[in-house]
């Protein structure tokens, strides 16, 4: 079982549609597993609940940028294989909401001149 995101995580044939892969469920269990699937489905909800402590916000934003730059498509692939692209939409909305809350928190906590 894999424990991290990577391109073509289930070793699918090029250009294959999920519905055309007879053993997709067994590949999903073998290569993705429950823990990684949970992480892919839930990371944005956890981010939304995370502290808005300005001391660590910069680091969280930097790590989020790294994730989006390097793992976005692999994350979407896992959700596609899991048949839950709606989760991707909800996760993007959660991240957007988190950014808005963080921005407002930082704006209100910055010294006014």
Characterization of this structure:
- By secondary structure, the chain is an all-alpha fold.
- Helices cover 70% and strands 0% of the residues.
- Helix 1 packs antiparallel against helix 2, helix 1 packs parallel to helix 3 and helix 2 packs antiparallel against helix 3.
- It is elongated, with a radius of gyration of 17 Å.
- The N and C termini lie far apart (55 Å).
- The relative contact order is 0.16.
- The mean pLDDT is 90.
**Termini Cα gap:** 55 Å
The averaged pLDDT comes out at 90
Using the alpha-carbon principal axes, give the shape.
elongated
Oligomer: single chain
Topology:
Layout: H1 24-49, H2 54-81, H3 85-109
Helix pairs in contact: 1-2, 1-3, 2-3
Keywords, please?
elongated, mainly alpha, 113 residues
Q: Can you summarize this structure?
A:
With 113 residues, the chain is mostly helical. It contains three helices and no strands.
């Amino acid at each position: 079982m894999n424990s991290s995101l990577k391109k073509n995580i289930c070793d699918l044939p090029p250009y294959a549609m999920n519905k055309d892969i007879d053993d997709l469920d067994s590949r999903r269990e073998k290569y993705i597993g429950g823990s990684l699937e949970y992480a892919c489905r839930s990371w944005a909800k956890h981010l939304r609940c995370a502290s808005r402590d300005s001391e660590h916000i910069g680091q969280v934003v930097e790590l989020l940028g790294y994730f989006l730059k390097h793992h976005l498509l692999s994350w979407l692939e896992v959700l596609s294989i899991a048949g839950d692209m709606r989760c991707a939409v909800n996760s993007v909305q959660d991240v957007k909401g988190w950014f808005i809350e963080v921005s407002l928190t930082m704006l209100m906590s910055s010294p006014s001149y």
